[in-house]
Amino acid sequence: MKIGIIGLGYVGLPLSLQFARSGVDVTGLDVDDRKIVALNAGKSYIEHIPAAAIQEQVGAGHFRATSDFSAIKQLDAVIICVPTPLNKNREPDISYIIKSGEAILPHVHKGLLVVLESTTYPGTTDEDLRAVLERTGMKAGVDFNLAFSPEREDPGNPNSVVAQIPKVVGGLTPACLKRAIDLYSQAIKTIVPVSSCRAAEATKLLENIFRGVNIALVNELKQVYAAMGIDVWEVINAAKTKPFGYMAFYPGPGLGGHCIPIDPFYLTWKAREYGQNTKFIELAGEVNTAMPMYVVHRVQEALNAKKKSINGSKILLVGLAYKANVDDDRESPSYVLLDLFKERGAKMAYYDPHVPVIRPSREHGHWAGTKSVPWTQKSIGSYDVVVISTNHKKTNNQELADWAQLVVDTRNAMADVKVKAGKVWKA
Fold it and tell me: Which residues are catalytic?
């Protein structure tokens, strides 16, 4: 097949390269001309994707990028990998999916396969996207094929290889499913077919809701155990020695990334259409959303012990990315912390070896252009308190322990570091 992939970000670009490595002719489609120029020049704009991997496939003629969607006329399949954020009212925003469908619309042809990978609520593929594509007068499942296959990306995990991650696939009809299986079988080792697009959409939501709910549980227990003088990290490490019936999840300063903080609310919103309440999911969301404020309170307590207040203090946030060892700062709780501390009169700065400068974004544009501070003893020692929000391997925690006046640790990063008594507070 000749395929196109719409959206060349953290999902679409790795998928494009995996298909290209498998010998498939891939056309990357994106509306950002800067990405198109960079990719065709063999350059990477995502830290964990080396430029050499792009250069290899561009040079072999297996991958090219364009903003000209008329290329779809020559393709056998198109995969949509675009964002699905929440709006300011925490309601699903599928506008990027709809716009992608409208971009495909003039170029839909007999036999074309369209697959949606963006995480969304059940019914998006066979209702919303289908309605857009059928404006051509052609019918899904008759004239063209339609399917859903949820993305499964784990940035920062060196053991996570696209080709080795089982691929769930659901089609509008049995024929659509077969076409989708044929497509992904060219690049992915294991295909997991399900009965419908909706079952595939629901599978992705279950995966992320499972994580969100369990993270909320340990976030809540962290606060309860702290009040009892018990270290939740010690408890988790002991519990995970049980070889059955337990899976370790870890607390933090809040949820980040483009999946877990967002995806559960796609289901809660859709469930209301069917008169169903999702109390468990919503409660987990409340717990996780409240975690940055818990961190603020712990910082306040730590500063008070030094006869200081948040107002007027210099606070350094270590780690801007939402998870360790990546440059992905989407939905990062670090931004919430920056805002909360600044609102309380603190002078804020951050350090992140993976994010040297804050890029423009829809949610946190007011921080755009802010640069990571230098990692020097003079710099680190000048702050009244350092808050560890993300525990990157590139961060030298021993130097942090030696140089910082005070540390508030939200990730248990200082557990094995030699440090003076009273310098580290857990949050």
Answer: 259
